[in-house]
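ARCHIVE CARD
CATEGORY: sequence design from structure
SOURCE FIELD: tokenized fold
FIELD CONTENT:
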């Protein structure tokens, strides 16, 4: 796939993610408040910011046709391999079950993306690239689901 097609697909995916977020609600926030000790709250926010930075890097790497680097970034910074890095075992007890499940699903989705990207790196077909973007969309969908249901501030 040419870099311009990949860039267009990545840009389109990024726009879809932004559209899904939608305008901020001025009405009452009905999401479940999750109360965390201040250090844990800062830790969680730091983790989420790192996930966003990693997603941005993945988008850029895909636009540059650097699929293997995108795969590695997603796995090591967001996927199941990142749990130790982010102190997941220390955070989990503070989360309600649904939030914990959403977080676990996000990490699993990132690992699935990495596996799909590895296959796409070998196959180098349009269909394989479509699967890459679908797998990446699944990662952001889990983020959106959690942020729609929960808040920590």
């Amino acid at each position: 796939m040419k870099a311009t097609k990949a860039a267009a697909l990545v840009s389109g995916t990024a726009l879809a993610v932004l559209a899904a977020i939608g305008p901020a609600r001025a009405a009452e926030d009905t999401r479940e408040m999750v109360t965390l000790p201040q250090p844990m709250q800062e830790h969680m926010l730091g983790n989420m910011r790192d996930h966003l930075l990693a997603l941005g890097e993945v988008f850029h790497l895909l636009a540059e046709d650097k699929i293997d680097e995108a795969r590695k970034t997603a796995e090591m910074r967001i996927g199941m391999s990142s749990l130790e890095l982010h102190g997941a075992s220390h955070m989990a007890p503070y989360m309600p079950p649904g939030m914990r499940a959403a977080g676990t699903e996000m990490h699993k989705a990132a690992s699935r993306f990495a596996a799909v990207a590895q296959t796409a790196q070998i196959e180098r077909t349009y269909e394989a690239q479509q699967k890459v973007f679908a797998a990446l969309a699944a990662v952001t969908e889990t983020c959106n689901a959690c942020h729609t249901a929960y808040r920590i501030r």
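CARD ANNOTATION: The mean pLDDT is 88. The helical segments are 3-21, 38-63, 67-77, 88-91, 97-123, 126-149.
SHELF: design records, drawer C
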